Amino acid sequence: MGEQSIVGLAVLGTSWTCSVRGDNEITAAGMANHLKFIARTVMVPSGNVDMAYKMLNRILTVDGIVDEARRRRYYEKPCNKRRRENYENCRRIYNSEMAGKVSFLMRKNRQDPWPGC
């Protein structure tokens, strides 16, 4: 088996730390300290750090951590926060209704799955 490392990102308040560890450096005590943070960890197979970094960025983006960090960089006025949250709710409702309409049309306009039956 090839070497494996861990790329992790720990978020505590607004400080971000990224760590790359070697093969046998992970201990139970180290992981216990690591789990005190809100953490995302990605395995790095055979030293391919670029792929692990892309996976980590994708996980952070999907979880919304990147957007939250950008928003917390500066103070957001309460009126702007309400406006943003209302817009996000409306967009979420619109997207779910549009997905329902598209799935209905896909069911309605599909070809006959069993021709001749």
Automatic annotation (TrEMBL):
The keyword Ribosomal protein applies. It holds the Pfam family Ribosomal_S21. One of its GO terms (biological process) is translation. The keyword Ribonucleoprotein applies. Keywords: Ribonucleoprotein, Ribosomal protein. Signal peptide: none annotated. GO terms for molecular function: structural constituent of ribosome. NCBIfam families: S21p (TIGR00030). PANTHER family: MITOCHONDRIAL 28S RIBOSOMAL PROTEIN S21, SMALL RIBOSOMAL SUBUNIT PROTEIN BS21M. Belongs to the bacterial ribosomal protein bS21 family. This is Mitochondrial ribosomal protein S21. It comes from Xenopus tropicalis (Western clawed frog).
